[in-house]
Amino acid sequence: MCTSPRSLQEFAARIDEPEFAEVRAFYRVRNAQAIPMIFDEVGWAEASRVLDADKAAVERQTLLFVQSRHLGHEAVLNPFRGRRSGRGASSDAAEIVDRELAENGCAWCDPSRWHVAQGSRLVEQFGEIRSRDGRFRACPNWARLSTLSGIAYGDERAHNLFRLQREDFRALFETASQYILRSQRYRPSLRYFICFLNGGPRSAGSVPHAHVQILGREDSHFGIAEQVARCCPRDYWKRIADVHESIGLAHPIGDSKAWANLCPVKERDVTLVSSDLVSGAAAIFEVLRALIQSGTTSFSLAAIIKPQNEPTDSRFDQWPVVWRFVDRGDIRAAHADIGSLELLGGTSGVATDPWSVARFIQNS
Fold it and tell me: Is the pTM here over 0.90, yes or no?
């Protein structure tokens, strides 16, 4: 029986073993030696304070490359990137959100402004969406991002995403699900939906209050979904889940399955597949909680939903709900966030080994 690798470095050394034939069909994995460097005494004295590593290892670094054969995305892993300094005083994202609330207030927590109790202040033409207990609602997004563009959020007890309980997190997506169903009854031609959530003090979110954005359109699915449908086998998500499970990167969470991506787009890149939006929210919450407890401070999360309503788009007939989670990097280090290499170069520079992320998932 094949023993699962314990690190990307070990896997790169074993990639040609017969047991990994299916993995090789989806990924190319290789290592490469960077051109050696030479530090003088003064240069190394400064570098050693930043990197806290052996001089010989720093001068002769080994890089690990992973490329998705279907999607073309490439990641280069170098653990030294995670050792660089530049960190500020506080890294507790929950405390930062609390402090911002105390200093600046929140229009969504204020009963006289955009609190969920003010349901009629802004509604879609198809009416108001509110949770059974009245603590969560969905409403239009002022700055539209798609044909359907809404926001699901809760009351003042659901302000801080990093302090949400499982049921509150689940309620956000349950409200989003009801919003999608209501929008489809109003406009049946809406078929393609995605939900996303930005977490942390610097994660592309303009509002610190925890919220889920819901987008819907009629013509085609959103970017990554169309790319997978165009480039990959129709049973891609089942096969890619099996590939990750075969090398010890995937773990079940209830009826869902989560895995640390072998070819990440940034730190702690996780995919989860679920049968529906609400059960998937409960499962991804466990992953999110484990990653926050182990250091995640800023992240992006998206749920890509199988096309709704007949006629079905046959390209997506074997799709589950696909959840994508990416850690955007340590909020204390400016270099850790997504940069030009990722956005413009098509290659991700990462410091976190996927097998380390898999252990976080397993511990959840």
Answer: yes
